[in-house]
C-alpha cells in the first residue's frame, strides 16, 4: 500500500518522521485526492506526551487523533496506518459513521494539513498515536473532506 515509503519505522525514535509515518499517511491520502500532510514537531510532542502515559485512550484534546496498539512485528507505523485505512471499506459516503470509519476518514480528511505522531513501548505492547491539525470528522463536512478512491 505504501510504495516508495521505507519499511522501517518501529516507532523507537531512531527513524525520521517522514519515513515512519508521514510518507504512509501521504501515500494513503493521495489515493483519495487529499493533499500531502506536513510534519509538525508540536503535534509529535503532543502525541509523545499521550503515549508516554502507557494508557490506550484518546486525549479528547484540540487535535484529531488516531491510536493503534500492537505487539511484536505488528508494532510498526506501516501497520498502524494500514489498520486505520482498513476502515475504508466500512465508509458509507451517504451515511458517514465515525464509529466504524473514523480512523480512515481522519487519515484522508482533506482539511487536515499537518500531522505529528509518536509511539511508546508499554510492556508487551507498543502504543502509537497520531495527531492531526486541523482535526477532521466533523458532521456535515464529510462530502467535501473525504474523497473517492483513485488508486
UniProtKB/TrEMBL annotation:
Signal peptide (residue range): none
Xref: InterPro entries: Allrgn_V5/Tpx1_CS, CAP_dom, CAP_sf, CRISP-related
One Pfam family hit: CAP
Domain SCP: 16-140
PROSITE patterns, alphabetized: CRISP_1 (PS01009)
GO CC, any one term: extracellular region
Source taxon at top rank: Eukaryota
PANTHER family: CYSTEINE-RICH SECRETORY PROTEIN-RELATED (PTHR10334)
Protein name: SCP domain-containing protein
Native source organism of the sequence: Symbiochloris irregularis
